[in-house]
From TrEMBL:
The keyword Cell membrane does not apply. It comes from Brachyspira catarrhinii. It comes from the Bacteria. Keywords: Signal, TPR repeat. This is Tetratricopeptide repeat protein.
Length: 389
């Protein structure tokens, strides 16, 4: 039973702990990362987060390319794009951030690097071999190339979209990277092409709830975006691993903290459903590291204790049921009505069981204990008065 008392102690420890780097909260084992990933995440943990080569590497690795030989192949393909950009665009860098930013976006499409938009084309390899892209991969590519020429850019994430914002002498300019004419997309651009007229215009309301992020946060978004593509919606352990990797790249981003807590809770609930309480406890312990006051985790802890308590009730092991429910109420701050109700049920059934077995002294002692916790409960008062002395 000692295992079940650690959550309360753990809550106290977490409150006074200060975390300085991802590895303070996240540990990978050998089954979760390849050597290539281990070396990459070690760089991040050491604070090597401003190196553009690390950013390019992250784009590839976060797309699931984690074998060293395969990585070298894709890195070579990416370097071909970088070298071509330097050869053909370096002469225009003196135009300034605004004009160069516009030119770079058009160039990416003119060279056929980005060919066809698919909402689900969220992996680096789709872009390299098929020219297929979505808002995230196109934003990452644009950010990396724009930065390589010495200009400043940020990623922008909304609830369902990603794009870029560049810093220019004309102010901060949005870049809708999913279209060739997406530079400063809040303004209309009219082009005559033979007998037709094309108007490029993206309404500003499409960019509501915007969050300015760095390149590593953009790259981190590849992990949650690719879960469905890798068909691991039901592989809860695999989802935890991906959530851990996203957190590692962007530990200060609320979304990735919350994604990780959700993943731990989903896994804990699945283990609770299977009555695998040791495994459930482990995931709850991990979730508490990231937020020891999270309402979702508190609800899961309640289900954890209630499920264990019900298993003892089902076996008519009332003493252990009582102990579990009392500990659950202690760890949840006495705010779990279901635990309180089932504690009453455990006491009631225990008293009745002892009464029916004619162990009246024990039944009376248990009723006194119950009344200390629930002094005005009529059922316990009635039971106690019926016990022979």
């Amino acid at each position: 039973m000692n295992k079940y008392f650690k959550i309360a102690l753990f809550l106290l420890i977490v409150c006074s702990t200060i975390y300085a780097k991802p590895s303070d909260k996240i540990k990978f084992n050998s089954s979760e990362v390849t050597k290539l990933e281990f070396d990459f995440f070690t760089k991040i943990d050491r604070g090597q987060t401003n190196d553009i080569e690390t950013h390019y590497d992250g784009f590839i690795i976060a797309s699931g390319i984690t074998d060293e030989e395969e990585f070298k192949l894709y890195k070579g393909k990416l370097n071909e794009i970088r070298n071509l950009a330097k050869t053909e665009l370096s002469q225009y860098a003196s135009e300034g951030a605004y004009n160069f930013g516009k030119r770079l976006l058009a160039w990416i499409y003119e060279k056929g690097i980005l060919k066809k938009y698919f909402e689900t084309a969220t992996l680096f390899q789709d872009m390299i071999y098929k020219g297929e892209y979505n808002c995230l991969t196109s934003s990452i590519l644009y950010s990396l190339l724009y930065t390589e020429f010495g200009f400043n850019v940020k990623g922008i994430l909304t609830s369902n979209h990603a794009f870029c914002m560049v810093y220019t002498d004309r102010g901060n300019i949005d870049v809708e990277t999913t279209v060739a004419k997406g530079f400063d997309p809040g303004t209309k651009e009219i082009r005559n092409t033979g007998s037709s007229t094309i108007i490029t215009f993206v309404p500003k309301q499409n960019y509501n709830n915007r969050n300015e992020v760095d390149i590593l946060t953009l790259i981190a978004t590849l992990y949650p975006n690719s879960i469905s593509l890798r068909k691991i919606e039901r592989d809860l352990d695999r989802q935890i691993i991906m959530a851990k990797k996203a957190y590692y790249l962007s530990p200060d981003t609320e979304m990735y903290n919350d994604n990780l807590i959700r993943a731990f809770n989903r896994a804990a609930l699945e283990h609770i459903r299977k009555s695998e309480y040791e495994e459930a406890y482990r995931h709850l312990e991990e979730a508490l590291i990231f937020d020891n006051n999270n309402s979702r985790t508190k609800d899961t802890i309640i289900r954890y204790y209630n499920s264990m308590g019900l298993s003892y009730l089902g076996k008519k092991d009332f003493p252990n049921a009582i102990q579990i429910y009392k500990q659950g109420l202690k760890d949840t701050g006495n705010n779990a009505k279901v635990l309180e109700n089932n504690l009453k049920v455990s006491y009631y059934n225990y008293i009745v069981s002892e009464y029916n077995s004619r162990r009246y002294n024990n039944a009376y002692t248990i009723s006194e204990e119950a009344l200390k916790l629930f002094p005005k409960d009529r059922d316990f008062i009635r039971l106690q008065t019926s016990i022979p002395k």
